[in-house]
Amino acid sequence: MKATARAHANIALVKYWGKRDRELNLPSVGSISLTLRELFTETAVEFTSELTTDELILNDRPATPEQTGRVSRFLDLIRTQAGIKQAARVISRNNFPTGAGLASSASAFAALALAGTRAAGLTLPPRELSILARQGSGSAARSIFGGFVEMHRGTRSDGQDAYAEPLADDHFWDLRLLIAITDEGEKPLGSTAGMEHTAHTSPYYSEWVRSSEADLAEMRAAILARDFSKVGELAEFSCLKMHALAMSARPGIVYWNGTTVELLQAVREQRKSGLEAYFTIDAGPQVKVLCLPENVSAVRDFLSGFPGVQRVLETSPGPAAHLIEESA
Ligand code: 2P0
Fold first, then answer.
1. Alpha carbon of residue 324 to chain centroid
2. pTM of whole model > 0.85?
3. Chain-wide mean pLDDT for the chain?
4. Where does ligand 1 bind, in terms of residues with CB under 6 Å?
């Protein structure tokens, strides 16, 4: 059987950083995100006895052995669950730059979880899909759902309570997120390694974990109340808190470049002059700016003209992961 799925990237408004279990990829903290309509991965999976090992084509090129290995280990989870042994042909394409802090692993593993299970003859409920996607990448658990999504850290050692669930769908609130690309290259230190290094060496790590529940509760309430100022203020807070944590590792991790810093100052300046917009930044140098639809063109103009910004992507709330094609 063959199946093709599309899953969208997401932006964390309350950030995930750190794991409580590496094997099952269980997060130390919960997170809250918005799924993004314009950024997605499309993945086709076919299990076939024509192949002896898994084959991965990523963005029209054969993937590296490391990328293929990560996908193979993920497919093993599906093969075990489905009771099949065949190798798979996987063809995956992102419509946005890979590995530059634009959550490509989130949309990638969400699409792979859905296409892979269907191709293996399994139909999993969304929560089970989220648990499966999490084992590929923590943020992928969130991309199973559309709109505003909360990921639960869970407390069980088997990971069965570490899943995402929707807070409000993609039609609940028309927010916009503009992404200022300051560097298209791959980031020097991946999230997984960055998180591990932070957890092992930052003196602030335990406080990050302890204080996370309060941030989640505040953000959940602000989203449900459609309180834009509160959501924006909290998103900036969680972003800077996560980066301060990473910087407090030893040696400290700095994902920003000069433009990143200039931009976050400038967003705050703009806000003082009446343009209500808020920044957030992931494990990379791109600056993502949250605003209401009526301010999109002003924010786009401001970002496009900013020195060091290479291009600007405009995104809005997007749907859950879904199947595009299925054939026997
Ligand atoms: C997030 N990030 O909440 C945070 C904020 C980046 C910064 O989740 O190790 O690729 O695969 O579970 O999901 C990126 O980390 O990490 C991420 P793994 P993932 O969006």
1. 21
2. yes
3. 96
4. 12, 15-17, 25, 31, 105-106, 137-139, 191-192, 195, 242, 282-283
